[in-house]
Amino acid sequence: MAWDQWIRRGVATAMLLPVVVATAHSQSAASGIIGTVRDSVGHPIDAVVVEARDGTTGYVQRAATNSTGRYILLGLPLGGPYVVSARRVGYIRSDRPGITLTIGAREIVDLVLRVVPVRLTELNVRADAEAGRESRIGGSTRIAREQIDALPIPDRNFSGLASLSPLAGNQLSLGGQRWTSTDLRIDGAQSRNLLRAGEANGGPAAISLEAVREFEVNTAVFDVGQGRQGGGQIAAVTRAGANSPEARLYTGFRNEHLAASTDFQGRSRAARTAQTLQTALSLGGPLVRDRAHYFLAYERQDASEPLTTGDVSTAEAQVASGIARDSLVRLLDVLTRQYGTDPAVSQTGQLGRRSVSQTLFARVDWQLAAAHRATVRLTASDWVSPLSGGVDQAIALREARSGFSSREAQLLSTLTSHLGERTLNEVQIAFGTSRRALIPESPGVPRGFVQVRSLLPNGTTGNSTIQFGGNRLAPDESREWQLQLMNRLTSQRGSVLWTLGTDNSLVATRTLIAEAQGGLFVFPSLAALEARQPNRFTRTVPLSGASPVTRQRVLELGAYGQVEWQVTDRITWTNGMRWDATAFLDAPAANAAIDSVFQVRTARAPRDLAQLQPRTQLVWRLQHDARDIIRVGAGAFTAQLPYYAGHNQLLYTGSTLADIDLRGTAVPTPDFARYRAAPLAVPGLPAGAVLSPAYVNVAGAVRAPRTWKGSATWWHRIGDGTTVTLGVQASRMRDGYAYVDRNLRNVPAFVLTAEGNRAVWVPANTIPAATGVTDVRNASQHPAYARVLALESGARAEQVAVTGEVAFRLGDRAQGTMGYAWSRARDNSSYGCCLARTTTTFTPVVDDPRALGQAWGVSDFDARHRLTGALSVRAPFKLAITARYVGTTGRPFSLVVDGDINGDEANGNDRAFLFDPGNPTTPADVAASMRRVLANPNNLARRYIASHLGQVSGRNTITTPFTNRVDARIARQFRARGSGALRSAELIIDVYNVGNLLNRRWGAQYLLPVGISSQNPVVNRVPLLRVVGFDPATQRYRYSVNESAGVLPKGGDPYQVQIGVRIAR
């Protein structure tokens, strides 16, 4: 079927669903109202009609009690307030007003019917934020609409508030697991970048903040409806219209004049001009009163924010960049004179750029009949952002960068049906599309790397690599089409609540990624650049002449069943089983030669059809008023494989692309001026040369990552306004995916005796003495091939955490939360996505990249201590003050070698040997540099190095300092008088990074090197040594020492003020 037909049919199906299934089953949701009805002496009453009415929309749902007096009202739209009433002939009607439903909550409303008209005793109604959420306490953090409206969020993305979860980590990782194992959902439908993982939207937000009703961050929720996750889930629900019309307009503005006078690198406001304008409009109301309602939201963010690269304007900036000003000036002069770099365009420093993001949201809720409710919801986003694509080096010229654009849309149809008085069904179908692209600044031009060693203003010697020319990842265009079908049936039978469900997805992708196809020239020094004498040229060449495109389809199936047994009035026991299956439906063409040599099946696509996940949970309310609650749960979870794994296999078959790797005298003399004018002139295979060995990906014994998780929580309420939560959580991930080189020789060619006998896989006589640059082809078991990478399931991870949280409310004047988590996350591979070659690059090793046991240690996602807080205060003069705080242990990092000393092709993944300057066998120049490294008081790694001299450094054994961040808001609302259209206007002042406002030294972060893409934004590796040669006689590498290793620059955003206005009618 053609792609456009596939799209049209998917959209038509989603739009027609409410009509097709209007007489069929429907909906579900964990949220609702449950309880019992008893008489005045405590006996249960059956056949009582219980009704819940939403006063804002007129929505009504009814149920009847069973023989035990229990009733259940599930699938109720979130919000309210609801009035719950019970009536039966012969009894006085009983009402309970003011019930508000939140995400994942089941409000317990017990009612009493009396046969004589007596005054009812007031019942104790819990007013805490966790009311009805007993099954989630300690495993979930809820962010309410009031917090979303009140807290400052710089980019207005709801997921930014996920940082308030004590177990949230960097890059949306949860519970110490890989960020790729975090599931993201909006209204129950998956909202995920399926190719690369992470959020579906490429821009600041998937939907307008005005459209989000509330969301939660789940790290230990054992409902079997939660699937395709390892660390946890971020789930949001959207707003719906009501009987009362409403309209809101928000606009916010900030620029450099509302920011700190200098940043952490000493740059003035004039050197960092920036401006952001945010505008959001929302409309909601009735189409037909009490029957149909709509809600619309549009948001636009227009940001002019410079990109900083190679800034040497101040002494601090030169140290941070690792290059002296005169060296950078010389490099730019050479590139302008000899390599065709445009002198009229700023290439380094503050590079101006303007990004525009737009989102659209539309939702219609329609009460089709008393038993059927339909919802149709549309989300769409568009983002254009120049110079935001990934690069290979921390300093990359403008010409070597790329712009990013993305466009996503999703249409979701939901039908909720009540099948009798005790059964509820919800069916959802969603169709989503996305298009993401990287547009290179210099199309078709090869990359150039220049290694520069220069004396920095602080007296140390800096090592840096500068990138110019082209971009490795661009051009790039990826398309996704996703069809989702979900159904959940819930039925109450006596004291047992039965749940059956299914969660399915069919995805098609079309991917063009011209990775490394433009070529790369490597220059070992500025002198070599000026002499046009690179020492290496590499290129991945399409054998068909055009960049190949991959197409794949992936089927995800899921089914689950759950039994929730109300053992007593105070004990609930839940048991369930979930089954998921993943099948990549398109296998690559078979390569018989590879199959024969390596005993693999190249025509096999990744597949895991046996993802069984048992789960259990016990909730014990120790008293009738639930002043103390204990929750214990355990179970298994499986996460999705990023679909990039299928792309890797379809593209790198061994017959689609050829790898060119030329060294020494075989390297062609570069002519960048010619390449810029005619990209086809870029060198390819030399005339008469033999086809280079192929780089091959195969699907080995790969399975979906499995995580076993357990959690125990005690929750205690103090009075009516304060709660305390203490918990412990542990998880163990197995079957994590990682690529393993099947062609790397089994026995080392030799060992480095001066470095603890670490292995080298290439023979010593193949390493050039002048450069020390290894060639992976010399490490192959079968020289006819280069790397043969198999996707295997050998990675594992563990995490244990102890958490505590206090939530308080002081009347109407103040409320807030404070949380703390101590956690320890360890793994043997932090690889998440995407290029197969980067598996070992991201996980530093001693010598053998296949021996993941060598890499076992602190995970890239470890945050040993984490503090979170949110506060809201009603101040004098009708001011509302809100703030959020996040304090966390810094990121862990490793000391590595800038080079490939073990010969596995991965540059920068070999952990550095810590040469002892007092050892007479240490070369004199290395010893002198190491003394300066150890004497530098600003070196964060100094203590570790001093205590481990003469050893290979460990993985992630050094940590950046603790960081603190406070964002605050001051708002004043002005209410309109009279009956005009304007209801209120609110003046809002946001201050981001309040600490820096109070003290210019506060609020900074210590920056690790920049990563290659948004999927890998930070490199947890800092070079200590650089390979400059090799001594074949002693079989030792010659090194220079990065004397600035461990001296991480202070960065991050200094304080910034934003002024906003919100108008409501």
From TrEMBL:
Major localisation: membrane
A Pfam short name: OMP_b-brl_4
Superkingdom of the source species: Bacteria
Gene3D superfamilies xrefs: Carboxypeptidase-like, regulatory domain, TonB-dependent receptor, beta-barrel domain
Signal peptide residue numbers: 1-24
GO biological process: siderophore transmembrane transport
Location(s) in or outside the cell: Cell outer membrane
Keywords, comma-separated and alphabetical: Carboxypeptidase, Cell outer membrane, Hydrolase, Membrane, Protease, Signal, Transmembrane, Transmembrane beta strand, Transport
GO MF annotations in UniProt: carboxypeptidase activity; siderophore uptake transmembrane transporter activity
Family matches, as PANTHER family: OAR PROTEIN, TONB-DEPENDENT OUTER MEMBRANE RECEPTOR
Membrane topology: Multi-pass membrane protein
One Gene Ontology term, aspect cellular component: cell outer membrane
Residue ranges of every copy of the TonB-dependent transporter Oar-like beta-barrel domain listed in the record: 237-997
Protein name: Carboxypeptidase regulatory-like domain-containing protein
